[in-house]
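Need residues for this backbone.
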């Protein structure tokens, strides 16, 4: 009954940071850090992970919450919320990274944990798939930014769109490139 916790989306300029927590009952074949898997492989693993888990949860921390708290605190808060939302309470929580959220349960941070522990790998995949899905929805609303391609990360294409169009409603205003574009007086 060990929960793995990981996030997707700390580095992007737009969209939420998404945190997942999962307790596996069976380990699906092919688990790994979501960044080391193709989109096709992650998408294929997602329903397997969910069906082979005792419990799982997903929390999206909004751009406004990120701006209010800062990205680190928003991520830690999201981790805390994701564990609290599990339908089954774990006996221990394993977190990818070097910091743990405040919680009453025993909690350990594992640097590179998403490549070491199956439950963290599973959380990594859940978080990435759910966040990518939200960014595809955002692309429908704001197609000029190309969120379907870069998912909000600061690629050359995203930086060019930000410079041309300014920030949209899902941009993180506390991030320097977004702040700079906002100061140019551009708004979508």
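Answer:
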């Amino acid at each position: 009954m060990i929960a793995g916790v990981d996030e997707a989306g700390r580095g992007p300029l737009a969209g939420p940071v998404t945190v997942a927590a999962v307790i596996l009952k069976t380990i699906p074949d092919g688990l790994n850090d979501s960044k080391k898997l193709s989109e096709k492989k992650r998408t294929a693993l997602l329903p397997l992970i969910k069906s082979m888990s005792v419990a799982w949860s997903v929390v999206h921390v909004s751009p406004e919450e990120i701006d209010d708290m800062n990205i680190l605190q928003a991520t830690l808060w999201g981790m805390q919320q994701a564990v609290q939302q599990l339908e089954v309470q774990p006996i221990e929580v394993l977190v990818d990274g070097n910091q743990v959220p405040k919680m009453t349960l025993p909690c350990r941070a594992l640097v590179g944990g998403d490549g070491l522990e199956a439950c963290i790998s599973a959380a990594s995949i859940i978080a990435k798939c759910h966040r990518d899905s939200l960014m595809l929805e955002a692309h429908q609303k704001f197609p000029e930014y190309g969120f379907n391609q870069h998912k909000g990360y600061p690629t050359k294409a995203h930086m060019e769109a930000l410079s041309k169009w300014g920030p949209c409603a899902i941009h993180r205003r506390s991030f320097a490139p977004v702040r700079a574009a906002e100061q140019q007086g551009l708004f979508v």
